[in-house]
Design brief:
heterodimer, A: about 180 residues, mainly alpha, two-stranded antiparallel sheet, 6 helices, elongated, B: about 280 residues, about 75% helix
Chain lengths: ~180, ~280
Amino acid sequence: MREAPGGVSPVPREARPYQGQRAGLVTRTLAGTVDILVVAAALAIGYAGWIGLRFVLDPRGFDFTGLRPLPGVTWALVLLVVYLTAAWSVTGRTYGGHVMGLRLVDRRGRHPGLLAASARAVLCALFPIGLVWCVGPARRSLQDLLLRTVVIYDWLPEAENGGPPSPQDTTGDVDRFTPGG
Amino acid sequence: MDSSSWLRDRPAADRNHELVVALDIAVEAARTALEAAALVARGAGAVGRPLLRVALRPPMLAPPYRPETWLRSLARQGGRRREEALRSLSGLLDALVPIVAQEVLSRVDLTETVRRYVDLDKVVADVDLDAAVARVDIDAIARQLDVNAVIERLDLNRIVRERVDLDGLVAAVDLDAAAARIDIDAVLARIDLVGIAEDVIDQLDLPEIIRDSTGSMASDTLREVRMQGISGDEAVTRAIDRLRLRRSRRPTPDAVAGPSPDGLPRQPDPLTPRES
């Protein structure tokens, strides 16, 4: 388990046994739900802003007929991919991951690179049901199996981590899993 | 009644007084007789000395035949007898005095006698104690002294408390100089500071204080949501494990074909990794 400088861990005592262990289906589903809500909210705000801009520019010709389902879903997927890619490649965690105390790391225990993050974001956006694979003993989704990533419990914020988690913090090799953790 | 019975019946004090009076009379009579004899002798000497000289040294006799020579020879023989008698008496006294002294001293309380008749203060005042002490080997005496036994009998705490000015002593001590000579690094090296700090932190639950003071970590609600999520993950994992275990216990074609050679149902190999 990682500790803050000075040997003191700010992680609550009851959560310390799980710190650095692989996350399961429930936590990751909740985190994904939060991320979808974030993207939906951002999409709604963006759409409202676009509608408002159109109304200001052309009040007489304004109508809601511009909202069509296919472009809306496309924009939502694009926004979701951009959001997930940016979050995972920069901090290793999305807002949902932050809320649920999760972090995405690669097989070396570091933040995934931009390429791996974008690939995982596309896979998650197009095939979200792959998350169900993490009910297995290895707790790895289909995206994790393809890209050799893993999602761990990490209650330490980035500022207190002093950097990305080390491989030892994530039970060493990401191909191994400690049962019960 | 005869005289002895009369004397025996008289009180002891009257008898002593009469004896003292008789003794005084005898002493005075003897002194008078001696003075008379001396007076007569001085008169007779003055008259008879020339006659005695002629009688002892007659002119017509040779010196070997003079009475003086005969008397001198007699005196020498008498002197030898006297010396022999003194030697005999000395030997007799050597034998008798210890016996007599022992008998006498055994009948006398010397301590009481000395205490009554001897002025010990005056005697001690005349003694040169400094010279006597200078001849004493105090080091040898001190070596034989059991100092530990003496110290054990002393109440040193009480003595120090009552007779030592501890405040004055402490005030005179330069504590700053003493502290400057202390090797604090060596002292700290013997202390498990890390262990003490960990114990204190463990008792204080410092992480909880940090979280409360900085607010950098999740709030109580968020922590509760996270722990609920972890509990959900564990529950799902246990349910999946039970499902896999139940599935692994279903009869296999081998089991359907027949029991194992030992008659027990066939079990999966525990060394075979579970499929993910």
